[in-house]
Amino acid sequence: MMAMKSALKEGLPQLGLDLTEDTQNTLCAFGHAVVEQNKVMNLTAITQPEQVAKLHLLDSISLLSVMPLAGKKVIDVGCGAGFPGVPLKIACPEAKVTLLDSLGKRMNWLEMAVPALGVENAEFVTARAEEAVATRRESYDFATSRAVARLNILLELTAPYVKVGGAVLAMKG
Questions:
Q1: How far apart are CA 140 and CA 136, in angstroms?
Q2: Helices 104-116 and 21-37 sit at what angle, rounded to 10 degrees?
Q3: Closest Cα partner for 27 from 79, 88, 73?
Q4: What pLDDT digit, counting tens, does each position of 90-112 carry?
Q5: Which residue, among 85, 72, 57, has the nearest Cα to 144 in the 3D structure?
């Protein structure tokens, strides 16, 4: 976990972010939990601690350097192992984060793992994006997603969740 923390600490200034020691520890604890759970459930191909910090944790919270999320409603569509939604919730607890994924096994794990880290008030929804929007249309300030689909498809899946004046924060390489 030391390698993960070192990589996280090194990357924060590059993003213009300053997080408390407790927040950094919680981010690393989540990264470690993902790596451990990955031993029994396919969550990610990235399991080296430094790479988890750079490619999962820092990449996820990079949204905070471009968009203030405090007090905003955010939905992470196709959250998978919890990226970017869980790191965003950890780094910005004032955000109201909903994690949405269709795979029940992953969501059950997140529902146990996230509160165990002391992260409160995250919402967990197990459903396909196309179906969940029926009761959540235009309910969020921001919709984000990472590694779900090509941009044109991603916009079709995420844009309906966003209120007028909100934005889709598409995390595409």
A1: 8
A2: 150
A3: 88
A4: 999 999 999 999 999 999 999 99
A5: 85
**Distance (Å, rounded) from C-alpha 171 to C-alpha 173?**
7
What percentage of the chain reaches a pLDDT higher than 70?
99
Tokens of 49: 């601690």
Instruction: Provide the CA 25 distance to its chain's centre, in angstroms.
Output: 16
| Residue type at position 62 | S
- pLDDT tens figures, 21-53: 999 999 999 999 999 999 999 888 888 999 999
Half-sphere exposure of 47 (CA within 13 A, CB side): 11
Closest CA to 163 of 144, 128, 137, 132: 137
The two beta strands, 162-171 and 73-77, are: unpaired
